[in-house]
Specification:
CATH architecture: 3-Layer(aba) Sandwich
CATH superfamily: P-loop containing nucleotide triphosphate hydrolases
Structural class: alpha/beta
CATH class: Alpha Beta
Largest sheet: 8 strands, mixed
Distance between the termini: 18 Å
Shape: elongated
Number of helices: 17
Number of strands: 8
Order of helices and strands: HEHEHEEHHHHEHHHHHHEHEHHEH
């Protein structure tokens, strides 16, 4: 029998410092993260929820007009938690800008921030969003202002790309072409500078015909200014990666009881295991349990007998038969997942009759997570 995931035990444990919710798109991951954070705050934790998904649903459900790149405390009528709840949404560009200001010094920082090449890569370089998510998580953890951080991740398999982000971004910035951009500045002696500069001139002439001379000059200036930050850049990512593997971190995989979502969930579980990441369990979201002990066959048989005399009862019985068929299908899909991953604790969260749009809805999701 599959072990039940005890959500309250997870969030009540003072050694649990970070909970990362991951899963494919459209499975209710953002709502799950917000509901989990709200429940933790109501049970006494000083909690902050960080969303990397650019959707505005989280802010609306928490009664906030919008979320920014710094945590805002949730304070609305009817919400009086024993602890505190704060919420924020990652702004990739602002996080990168803040990191530059912190580590480059005032003059160099302004030069970097004004550089057109920086303005391009700070929003479009592969791995930048995931790296900045790690940076922001590291910042939140370093302050010790909160004893629980709940992280909502991007949809689909990119949810785990932040595990690869430091290497991907470092490799990109440390690649041969990018390194050539800094060649003249890094040559040590006059003779070497002359050789490198000559080679660089040939390289630059060729490349400038493709990407334009001004962009090449901007890229070279950026790399020369950025180079002194590069070691700290990698080191901070390494420390956050260690934080994600620490005993105080738990990963929750969120999935709907659908074939595609559960295949993605299997991928997440296997990837987390391969990375030695601490997996807490699977949240099977929006399930449809049967509320009456009546089989689909019996319901359809009764509906057939009542069709001519009780049309309303007939319609109810037919709806019940459809619900039973759906519930049985979901059970088969979840059973297949648990056979493949027998050691993964699981909790089913029944679907609400309507979308979550306020604190009350998040609270009910939290209750269903823990029930």
């Amino acid at each position: 029998m599959t072990e039940r995931l005890d959500v309250d035990a997870l969030i009540d444990d003072p050694t649990t410092r970070i909970v990362v919710c991951c899963g494919s798109g459209g499975v209710g991951k953002t709502t799950t993260a917000a509901a989990l954070a709200l429940r933790a705050a109501e049970r006494g934790r000083q909690t902050v929820v960080l969303t990397i998904d650019p959707a505005r649903r989280l802010a609306q459900a928490l009664g906030l007009r919008e979320l920014g790149n710094h945590p805002r405390q949730v304070s609305v009528a009817g919400f009086e938690p024993k602890g505190e709840l704060w919420a924020m949404m990652l702004d990739m560009r602002r996080t990168f800008d803040d990191m530059v200001r912190t580590h480059a010094g005032p003059e160099r920082a302004e030069a970097l921030l004004a550089n057109p090449f920086y303005q391009t890569i700070s929003t479009s370089f592969s791995g930048t969003q995931e790296y900045m998510a790690m940076e922001k998580l590291g910042q939140l953890a370093a302050t010790d202002e909160w004893d629980l951080i709940v992280v909502d991740t991007p949809p689909s398999r990119s949810a785990l790309d932040f595990l690869d982000a430091p290497n991907r971004l470092s490799s990109a910035l440390d690649g041969r072409m990018i390194r050539l951009l800094t060649g003249p500045a890094k040559a040590g002696s006059w003779g070497l500078r002359k050789v490198v500069s000559t080679g660089f001139s040939i390289f630059a002439k060729a490349v400038s015909t493709i990407i334009g001379g001004q962009l090449l000059a901007d890229a070279s200036a950026f790399m020369q200014a950025f180079d002194s930050m590069f070691g700290g850049f990698r080191e901070r990512a390494r420390k956050t990666a260690e934080l994600l593997r620490s005993e105080g971190t738990s990963f929750l995989v969120v999935a709907a009881p659908e074939p595609d979502a559960l295949r993605e969930a299997s991928y997440f579980v296997e990837r987390l295991g391969g990375e030695n990441m601490p997996l807490a369990g699977l949240v099977a979201n929006r399930t449809h349990p049967v509320l009456a002990d009546l089989s689909a066959t019996a319901a359809l048989s009764a509906a057939e007998k009542l069709e001519s005399t009780a049309p309303l009862a007939t319609a109810v019985l037919q709806l019940h038969a459809d619900r039973v068929a759906l519930a049985e299908r979901e059970k088969r899909l979840l059973a297949r997942f648990t056979r493949a991953h027998p050691g993964v604790p699981l909790v089913e969260v029944p679907a609400l009759p309507s979308d979550v749009h306020d604190i009350g809805g998040l609270r009910e999701i939290g209750e269903r997570l823990a029930s």
